[in-house]
């Protein structure tokens, strides 16, 4: 492949191009949103620049200006291209799994779960670069603005969908794999005052129902389901469904990819 061909391939960005096309349609349908959509999306040459703008606009306060936050976000995106890649995967995940999401632009503009996770990713980048106080500041503002409290040291994959995203808590040593779906009021927490590795490890493709609490340094196997309201205190095998307080295995996961199907009905299988 020639250098020109590689450059052209690298410039292809179907997610961002779709967002821009939807933005133009949205302005035509609702001119009153023209200022918001132009400043948030159409004004920016790349998705990374648009996300940095949204990050700075949402998290700015009397303690930290939009300009400083914008510079932090731009630096993070430039330093680590995987942050932008994960954001694109998250957009697609939300669109595919949330029946209330009809366009790619909705998560970027309106869904606090998506916006909170993108802000976490910048905080996590700061944490990885030993800028811990700034990372804590981002965590604080995300919690205050979006009601989502994710420690910047937590490790979260891509293709994440958090529906409604109210009262989400993810602790310091938690790990969340790729293509995970969770609903509001989920806690991935510890069980006491112990230090060290003390939070859950969530495998790929897991579906976590509303209000579920997963506590302690335990593993939830890939492609499992945790029923709404459950309290999980022990390891969960892959491809299974657990429910109850405390949670017990009640059957198989019901399908190969429960996080993608979003089927939360317990059928006794």
Automatic annotation (TrEMBL):
Superkingdom of origin organism: Bacteria
Residue ranges constituting the Serine acetyltransferase N-terminal domain according to the UniProt record: 15-119
Gene Ontology molecular function: any one: serine O-acetyltransferase activity
Cellular component GO terms held in the UniProt record: cytoplasm
Swiss-Prot/TrEMBL keywords: Acyltransferase, Amino-acid biosynthesis, Repeat, Transferase
InterPro entries (UniProt xref): Hexapep, Hexapep_transf_CS, LbH_SAT, Ser_AcTrfase_N, Ser_AcTrfase_N_sf, Ser_O-AcTrfase, Serine_acetyltransferase, Trimer_LpxA-like_sf
Pathway this chain belongs to: Amino-acid biosynthesis; L-cysteine biosynthesis; L-cysteine from L-serine: step 1/2
Pfam families to which the protein is assigned, alphabetical: Hexapep, SATase_N
Reactions that this protein is recorded to catalyse: L-serine + acetyl-CoA = O-acetyl-L-serine + CoA
EC number: 2.3.1.30
First and last residue of the signal peptide: none
One GO term (biological process): cysteine biosynthetic process from serine
Similarity annotation: Belongs to the transferase hexapeptide repeat family.
Protein name: Serine acetyltransferase
């Amino acid at each position: 492949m020639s250098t020109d061909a590689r450059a052209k391939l690298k410039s292809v960005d179907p997610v961002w191009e779709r967002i821009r096309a939807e933005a133009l349609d949205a302005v035509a349908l609702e001119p009153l949103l023209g200022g918001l959509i132009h400043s948030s999306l159409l004004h920016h040459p790349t998705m990374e620049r648009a996300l940095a703008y949204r990050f700075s606009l949402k998290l700015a306060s009397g303690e930290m200006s939009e300009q400083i936050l914008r510079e932090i976000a731009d630096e993070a995106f430039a330093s680590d291209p995987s942050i932008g890649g994960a954001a694109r995967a998250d957009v697609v995940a939300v669109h595919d799994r949330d029946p209330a999401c009809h366009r790619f632009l909705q998560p970027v503009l309106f869904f606090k779960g998506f916006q909170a996770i993108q802000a976490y990713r910048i905080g996590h980048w700061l944490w990885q670069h030993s800028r811990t106080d700034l990372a804590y500041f981002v965590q604080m503002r995300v919690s205050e603005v979006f009601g989502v409290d994710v420690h910047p040291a937590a490790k979260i994959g891509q293709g994440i969908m958090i529906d409604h995203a109210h009262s989400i808590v993810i602790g310091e040593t938690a790990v969340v794999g790729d293509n995970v779906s969770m609903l509001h009021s989920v806690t991935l927490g510890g069980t006491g005052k112990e230090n060290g590795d003390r939070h859950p490890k969530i495998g790929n493709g897991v579906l976590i129902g509303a209000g579920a609490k997963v506590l302690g340094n335990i593993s939830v196997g890939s492609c499992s389901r945790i029923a709404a309201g459950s309290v999980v205190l022990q390891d969960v095998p892959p491809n299974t469904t657990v429910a109850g307080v405390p949670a017990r295995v009640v059957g198989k996961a019901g399908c190969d990819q429960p996080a993608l199907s979003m089927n939360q009905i317990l059928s006794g299988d």
